[in-house]
From TrEMBL:
The keyword Metal-binding applies. It catalyses: 4-hydroxy-4-methyl-2-oxoglutarate = 2 pyruvate; oxaloacetate + H(+) = pyruvate + CO2. This is 4-hydroxy-4-methyl-2-oxoglutarate aldolase. SUPFAM superfamilies: RraA-like (SSF89562). The gene is rraA. It comes from Actinomadura alba. It holds the Pfam family RraA-like. Its EC number is 4.1.1.112, 4.1.3.17.
């Protein structure tokens, strides 16, 4: 897959009326600092079974947006799930919650943004929703929207811009 070249600041300058800019200040954990792709979503709370299931399917350059309600009480993704995402062609994961295994995440060719880290495992009951609109940081993330992420932040459009 060919890399998409962009800078979120340039996208805002060129397409401001079409973009939502996420106000949440995420930390960068993955080995790919800039990533973009169509959005897939999971809504869950302290339970990562659906995250694991979705990232275990072919990603085709998509970005998984996980709304974990901002909880830092347990990690929604670690190195094994992230490695599975790389193997299946996901471009990135944005987690409104925590990750773990941060040293290993930095070594993976995957964009990973999260609020923070916690070594505690999450539940594995499969409670939550897949491919539904999720909202945080002043943005509604809808399946098949386009997400662009780099060191400056995250922007979302209803179509591919670049």
């Amino acid at each position: 897959m060919t890399a998409i070249e962009f800078a979120t600041a340039d996208l805002i300058d060129d397409f401001e009326d079409e973009l939502q800019s996420c106000e949440t200040q995420f930390r960068q954990y993955g080995g790919r600092p800039a990533f973009a792709g169509p959005v897939a979503t999971v809504r869950c709370f302290r339970d990562n079974a659906l995250v694991k299931d979705v990232l275990g399917t072919p990603g085709a350059g998509k970005v998984l947006v996980v709304d974990g309600a901002g909880s830092l009480a347990s990690a929604l993704m670690g190195d094994l799930i992230a490695a599975s995402a790389v193997e299946r062609g996901w471009a990135g994961v944005v987690i409104n919650g925590a990750v773990r295994d941060v040293v290993a995440l930095r070594a993976l060719d995957l964009g990973v943004k999260a609020l923070g880290s916690n070594p505690r495992k999450s539940a594995k009951n499969g409670v939550g929703d897949v491919n539904v609109p999720v909202s945080f940081g002043g943005v509604e993330f809808r399946p098949e929207d386009w997400l662009y992420s780099d060191e400056d932040g995250i922007v979302v459009a209803h179509r591919r811009l670049r």
